[in-house]
Write a structure and sequence with these properties.
Low-confidence stretches: 221-230
Radius of gyration: 23 Å
Number of helices: 13
Mean pLDDT: 91
Strand order of the largest sheet: 1-2-3-4-5
């Protein structure tokens, strides 16, 4: 076998993600994927080789890769058969037209896409589950790649998968703090499936739509148009109380940034963390200043919220019936499209939330306004 030498440094692209990097090294596409768990960061490196590149050998040491890359996992691309263990991963693949490449999901019941849902129901796409048989099911499928994620919770199984011969990648798009950073993961999928140009095109189109809409939302209120924005910046509450403790998104979270871009004033926008906790009394002290309430945990009705915490009835947003949940688009089994399809359509998501917060969006064009993930829980 011919030995190829490589004395170059990796050249990473400039991207907006905090959790993955992509670039080129020694004639191959490379990626670094990071997942943050508390104070720890899990880092995995990948080298993606097509048939022509792999024909020169896949031993990274013999290929002359730098020492810090010689233990990277080599993936033969384009991938053909993958298992997606999060709905976000399904969302990226569906947007890229890769439904037929999905051979397994974590739980088919929660897939929103009707075709993939039916395939899982008929067992032509495997539902891996979380019990002791999950690993056996994965091994039987023999996929080109298992796409998994980790939160540090009880259902994490990536360590067990990593001890097998199965190729594994942990994605952490759910940790991104902005809609565009979350969308940018589609570029990595483009490399994995040999359709980078298509992935880049989708990203650029969505980015342009998002930034155009964001600029329109930020325009001063004084306009001569038929549609005008309210000059008041609505104060937005997020989260829910459990046992007297209110759990909310931090000021540097995905929710806070989306609210800001949609023209709202998030209550804790000045905070720099991702997650916050307060006593109910601390939140209650702000009750009369809350214009609207978004993402009340997983609750979809007023009665469900009141049964858990009756005191919320005194919050201004509750009294004025301005509570918006992100479950407006669901699959046949109850899966929430906010975590599947919305991640690849940030402009439509921004439009949807802006309509809830401001009541109108001026000059909208090229936005598919049929997408409605957010809904007022008082309406249905």
């Amino acid at each position: 076998m011919k030995v190829v030498t490589c004395n170059e440094a990796v050249h990473f692209e400039q991207i907006g993600s905090d959790y993955f990097s992509i670039g080129r090294l020694c004639g191959a596409d490379v990626a670094v994927v990071r997942s943050v768990l508390g104070k720890d960061t899990i880092v995995h490196k990948y080298v993606m080789m097509d048939s022509a590149t792999a024909s020169l050998g896949t031993d990274l040491r013999r290929r002359g890769f730098p020492e810090e890359w010689q233990s990277a996992f080599v993936l033969r691309v384009p991938l053909k058969r993958v298992v997606t263990l999060s709905t976000a991963q399904v969302g990226y693949m569906l947007r890229l037209g890769l439904r037929d490449n999905i051979i397994g999901v974590s739980d088919g019941q929660y897939i929103v896409d009707s075709i993939l849902y039916e395939r899982a129901k008929q067992n032509t796409v495997a539902s891996i589950g979380y019990d002791a048989s999950a690993l056996e099911k994965l091994m039987a499928l023999s996929p080109d790649l298992v796409l998994d994620f980790t939160t540090g919770g009880d259902y994490d199984n990536y360590e067990q998968i990593a001890r097998t011969s199965l190729p594994l990648m942990l994605t952490s798009e759910w940790q991104e703090n902005t809609p565009l950073a979350k969308l940018e993961w589609i570029k990595l999928y483009g490399i994995l499936f040999g359709i980078r140009a298509q992935a880049d095109s989708i990203f650029e189109q969505e980015k342009n739509k998002y930034e155009t809409l964001k600029a329109l939302i930020a325009l001063p209120a004084a306009r001569n148009d038929e549609i005008t924005l309210n000059s008041h910046c609505p104060r937005v509450l997020a989260g829910m109380s459990y046992g007297g403790v209110w759990h909310a998104s931090g000021g540097n979270s995905f929710t806070a940034n989306l609210v800001r871009d949609a023209g709202g004033c998030y209550l804790w926008a000045s905070d720099t963390s991702r997650e916050l906790t307060f006593s109910f009394e601390q939140v209650y002290a702000l009750a009369d200043s809350v214009d609207m309430w978004v993402n009340p945990s997983a609750f979809g009705t007023v009665d469900e919220i009141l049964s858990l915490e009756p005191r919320v009835k005194n919050i201004k947003a509750f009294r004025e019936k301005k509570i918006f949940q992100n479950d407006g688009r669901k699959g046949p089994g109850g899966g929430n499209d906010f975590y599947e399809g919305a991640i690849t359509r940030p402009a439509e998501l921004l439009w949807n939330l802006t309509k809830c917060i401001k009541g109108s969006v001026p000059g909208v064009n090229s936005i598919d306004t049929s997408y409605k993930w957010y809904r007022n829980i008082y309406n249905f």
